[in-house]
Amino acid sequence: MGRRAGGRAARIALRQAPLADDARAVRPGMRGGAYRPLSDGQLDDVVEAALGLLEDLGMGQATAEFIDLVTAAGGWMDERQRLRFPRDLVKAAIDTAAKEFTLYGFGDHDGIEIGQNRVHFATGGAAVLILDHETQRFRESTLQDLYDLARLADTLDNIHLFVRTVVTRDMDTAREVDVNTAFATMMGTSKPIGTSMFHPEHVHEVVAMFDLALGGEGEFRRRPFCKANNTFVVPPLRFAEDSALCMAEQVRVGMPINLLSAGQAGATSPAALAGSLAQALAECLAALTCVNLLAPGHPCVMGLWPFVSDLRTGAMTGGSGEEAVLNAAAAQVVNHLGLPSGVAAGMADAKLPDAQAGHEKGQTVTLAANAGANLVYESAGMLASLMACSPETMVIDNDLLGSVNRTIRGIEVTPDSLSTATIAEVIDGPGHFLGHSQTLAMMQSEYVYPQVGDRLSPDDWVRAGARSAHEVANEYVTKTLATHFPQHVPADRVTAIRDAFPIRLPPQG
User: Fold this and answer.
1) Is 265 helix (H, G, I), strand (E, B) or coil?
2) Burial label, 466 (beta-carbon count in 10 A; 0-12, 13-18, 19+)
3) What is the DSSP letter of 211?
4) pTM of the predicted structure, to 2 decimals
């Protein structure tokens, strides 16, 4: 008994000791790509179909600047006023485009390296409802909710990028929405962030605010810590004018862009999953071509977010098997082109963090990540087919993301890990591996442990209070929001921002 107790104490001590990032069992940027829903021939077919769509049908509602750029490079406007993209022009843009880039964190945060099958988990969405952690009822989301969700994500290791999760329903104008969304997101976390803008002039205001936060004009361009989510397209194959205008300004200010196409299979894209994938790829390639004609090599993510419908009702379904395989295929086809990829997964149709949410999130996030998506958006906190966000769900999803990241890593097979010598030592010695040096050495470097998930025996669980994961997560949320107020932006710069912009978030902490 003494030997077993001593081994347990050693294991507890090692579990509590911090590890360097490169020695942890999981970390940002684990390399995926083992899951391949499409064959090489099928990948080529999807790419050819997308190129054909752009050459034969083109894009409607192009901005004047994009028309000038594309026609000067060999494209043309047809009799239906659609901008046509020759295959060779699009292929040249693929060759020119950035294959990887750094999205920095604020200040000293190292940020993340995007590209080359490196997988990162991000939030995202434009939920209009919050599942209030105090009342457990849905209500309209606010600016305070956005800031609180950013603060929460700041403490969760397996969320690598915080992108705006909820809409600030309490803001009065588009300018207030854009400026305050960027401000609250930046103030809530030092991790890399993402936001969006309604109008092109707001792009310059947001970057001016970021420059103030960083300490001087041009600092954001030197070290961009925020990525724009730009839904530039109205499927099928039409530019969204204001978003396209914003895209051009985002290029000019040096802001990385997620070129986001979100057609819904059976509604705004074909019900056939391959057709939906081809359309999304064509739309994103059109935007990529325009961006690279404007500024070759500007950092972009190919944000293929092909959604699917429940064809019985036409409603969007974010947690289906079709959604899971389609977004995994989207990551695969973008990686096949050597471009940075971003897809959506974790968009549970469930309204509560329950068993339905768990299985929907588990299948969609696992497939997207193992397909090698560089950014898996919507991966934490989302419920009700993106209509709602839940703080407790974000905490529970953090456990899921750690486990999924461990599946990406896989199993390393080496002479040491095959453990033949260790097995011999145990057979000749204590007869178990509990206190062995290999076991102790691998506690953190090989294994991932849940933050709220329970692994006690039933009796021990009852003695500990018989709490559900939701109850444990609620306690974590309540404590974190009462105590965690990031201070990475110097106070004098925050004051300058408040003096210069219509900031509606009250001082915190």
Assistant:
1) strand
2) exposed
3) H
4) 0.94
Q: Which residues of 78-99 are buried (b: 16+ CB within 10 A; e: fewer)?
A: eeeebbbbbeebbebbbebbbe
CATH topology of domain 94-409: TIM Barrel (3.20.20)
Residue ranges, the chain, pLDDT below 70: 1-22
How far is it, in rounded angstroms, from Cα 393 to Cα 384?
12
Domain ranges across the chain: 94-409
Q: What is the largest CA-CA distance in the chain?
A: 86
Contact between 185 and 166 (Cβ < 8 Å): no
Q: At what angle are helices 200-214 and 174-188 packed, to 10 degrees?
A: 30
Residue whose C-alpha is closest to residue 451's, from 379, 394, 383 = 394
List C-alpha distances in Å: 297 to 73, 93, 256, 300, 373: 16, 9, 11, 8, 20
Q: pLDDT tens for residues 345-376?
A: 999 999 999 999 999 999 999 999 999 999 99
How, if at all, do strands 300-304 and 315-317 pair? unpaired
End-to-end Cα separation, the chain, in angstroms: 49
Contact 196, 164 (CB under 8 A): yes
